[in-house]
Amino acid sequence: MPKKVDANGFEIFEGGSGRKEGQKLKPYLVMQYLLKKTDDSHTVTSEEIVGYLQETCGITAERRSIYRDIKEINKAYLMLEEDIDIYEAAEALEKDKTRRLIIYDTIKKGFRVNPRYRDSRLKEIRLLAECVYSAKFIKKEETDRLVDIVVDFVSEAQADMIRHEADLTDRVKTNNEQVFDNLDSINAAMSKTKSDKEHTPEKISFKYLKYTIQNINKPIERHNGERYIVSPYRLLISDGNYYLLGFDDTKQAMRTYRVDRMKDVRCIGAPREGKEAADAIEISKYSQQCFSMFGGETTRIRVQFENELLDTMIDRFGKSGAQYAPVDDEHFEITAQVRVSDMFFSWVCGFGKRAKIVYPEHIIDEFAAFLDGIKSVY
């Protein structure tokens, strides 16, 4: 007797008066169960799937129906994945079983997700989770919530492994609960459309926080709580922190602000200023010049390093953001635009005798004065 199929080619199962509840949901629930419970190291049997459907979902099922569900899941997945119709999917799966989403492991005697689809996804999900864990601007509680969303695409065992790996690393996280609200307000201010209508990018105001030695767990407001007025232009991520690049009303210059140190961000309606200054900034080189976003005058400098530090310098400046030249068999020089500040001098100090500023003369003098200042403390 030929099988009955619907308009899309899916098999129709007729139960008559004995039709059981929840049968239309069953294939979806079977797929979700397999995605959660199986991977390269874990399989489930048809009996376990039946038990899950009955005990957890309240749906009666038989082993034979599970086989049919998996067959339909594989066809539906390939249809969506490769944009083909059901007949092409059925023919492709018959010719090449490796294209099935759900396979039967003959060694472990159970069903599991095909590693062809799982392996690359695990690497991608682990990378995404690591990005969330490394973001200093996201609170610990928000980090856990976001990672729960990310790892929903791998098995439970793999998700637990990703979380365990993260627990082994101590990370600095913000305590500011307003970070996501800040980002929403900043993006709204910079947007050129609002509610499907044209919008003129506008200024924002906010309070800026700083830590004090009296209580390092509770930052206080800078400038006695006076609000900063800034024209926002770009959001940047550097060293795990979120920064706003904006034109400061008071200083009439481009400045960067840590988003997790901003408080009570408001759009104030006034049109932005500083477009010319913002357009003059080459974003690809900006973070390389800023050295952890500390200010200072941009200056063309030349520094000599030992050859073993070349990889470190390329990581910092990139290949196109600076000029490299050999000095002798043991040293090379790098010429680059940097924002010269005490932070830059401190960075150079970190290399000890392995680094030496060689140009320009006035920066060499400033660096020597910086070292004398440190020496005078001792």
Please explain how this structure is put together.
This protein has 378 residues and is of the alpha+beta class. The chain has 13 helices and 14 strands. The strands form four sheets. Strands 5, 6, 7, 8, 9 and 10 form a six-stranded antiparallel sheet that branches. It has a four-stranded antiparallel sheet with strand order 12-13-11-14. The longest helix is centred in the N-terminal third of the chain and has 20 residues, at 63-82. It is elongated and about 85 Å long. The termini are far apart.
Core attributes:
single chain; 378 residues; alpha+beta; 6-stranded antiparallel β-sheet; 4-stranded antiparallel β-sheet; 13 helices
Beta-strand portion reads 15-25%
Q: Describe the sheet with the most strands.
A: 6 strands, antiparallel
Tell me the overall shape. Answer: elongated
Whole-Å distance between the termini? 96 Å
Give me the strand/helix succession: HHHHEEHHHHEEEEEEEEHHEHEEHEH
Low-confidence stretches: none
The pLDDT mean sits at: 82
Helices and strands: which structural class? Answer: alpha+beta
Task: Determine the fraction of residues in helical runs and give it as a percent range.
Answer: 40-55%
Number of helices: 13
